[in-house]
TrEMBL record:
The lineage of its organism: Bacteria, Pseudomonadati, Bacteroidota, Cytophagia, Cytophagales. It comes from the Bacteria. The chain crosses the membrane at residues 6-23, 44-62, 68-86, 93-111. It is found in: Membrane. Its main location: membrane. Pfam families: DoxX_2 (PF13564). One of its GO terms (cellular component) is membrane. It is a multi-pass membrane protein. This is DoxX family protein. Keywords: Membrane, Transmembrane, Transmembrane helix.
Amino acid sequence: MVVKIINGVLILVAVFMGLKQGWAMLTGKAEMLDLFGKWGFNKAGVMVNGIVTIISALLILYPKTFVWGNFLMAAAILMIICFHLLEKDLKGMAIELPFLFLNLVIIYLQHPFTGK
């Protein structure tokens, strides 16, 4: 029971962060445009990435789409990690690692409302 509560809190954190960052990308916040711009993304590309991030955050909430939402969010985070590594930006990569691990831990613990 305690594990399900902890996992529920972790899911809410992941969803909140996904919605927050996705909204920042979708609305074209300057720091997001600068970050993705140095990797060759234009404003439309950043907006599409924001939409995918928001959708993945919402998919995490439902047990039937839980794994797909986590997979999409982890893939987006892994893409950002790879871009940081291409620039040899270890600090940027290290900042993204906890968010990637958060999605992996959530997948391991499974959705709290499934019967398992």
